[in-house]
Design goal:
Layout lengths: L2 H14 L4 H8 L3 H8 L7 H11 L3 H12 L9
Helix pairs in contact: 1-5, 2-3, 2-4
């Protein structure tokens, strides 16, 4: 897995479940800015954080794997406003 694809994959899982960043952050005991930095691939989550995020999303590792594969096929828009 490319680390750059994890952030967009997490964002996709959150959006598909209809959650805002602040809602997920509150649910998992984190902050909106921390989630934002993970989704933008500026930071890479530690394993316990990743588990809390997946639990908060009601997602499995299989869901994450599919989302990462989806993200790897998307054009890189990280520098686009």
């Amino acid at each position: 897995m490319e680390p750059a694809h994890l952030g967009p994959a997490l964002r996709r899982l959150r959006q598909v479940r209809g959650l805002k960043q602040w809602e997920l952050a509150e649910k998992i005991g984190s902050t909106k800015s921390h989630l934002s930095s993970l989704e933008l691939s500026r930071r890479f989550p530690r394993f316990p954080t990743l588990v809390r995020i997946l639990d908060g999303l009601g997602a499995t590792l299989g869901d994450l794997d599919r989302a990462v594969r989806w993200a790897s096929r998307q054009p890189d828009t990280s520098d686009t406003p």
